[in-house]
Amino acid sequence: MSLIQEFKAFAARGNVIDMAVGIIIGAAFGKIVSSFVGDIIMPPIGLLLGGVDFSDLAITLQAAQGETPAVVIAYGKFIQTVIDFLIIAFAIFMGLKAITSLKRKEEAAPSAPPAPTKDQELLAEIRDLLKTKQE
């Protein structure tokens, strides 16, 4: 089998397509969470802390000189990224927890007893015939 045919077979599998959809949705979800944290959560927290804008929090290691930009440690952006991560991790945790509980309910649901086999049906008929003969 050629390399192209192997790749087509690999890409056509359902798991690969599901994974691609998951990655795309995950990237979009990440952008939503980043906006939620940066635009909705952090401004009130900054206001509570005395009007601090977290995106501006940084330690300047070297000031800008001419065309050379300043060297800074932007720990405010890092704090926002950590909060983004925590929200995404919590959302994934809750989603997995919901899926797990649904699977447990499916497993816990009693299944119908298996239908009798042909042999069992024949034996039941013989038993019933013997009962009617004895009466």
UniProtKB/TrEMBL annotation:
It is a multi-pass membrane protein. The lineage of its organism: Bacteria, Pseudomonadati, Pseudomonadota, Gammaproteobacteria, Aeromonadales. The gene is mscL. Keywords: Cell inner membrane, Cell membrane, Ion channel, Ion transport, Membrane, Transmembrane, Transmembrane helix, Transport. The keyword Chloroplast does not apply. It comes from Pseudaeromonas paramecii. Pfam families: MscL. This is Large-conductance mechanosensitive channel. InterPro entries: Mechanosensitive_channel_CS (IPR019823), MS_channel (IPR001185), MSC/AndL (IPR037673), MscL_channel (IPR036019). It comes from the Bacteria. Belongs to the MscL family.
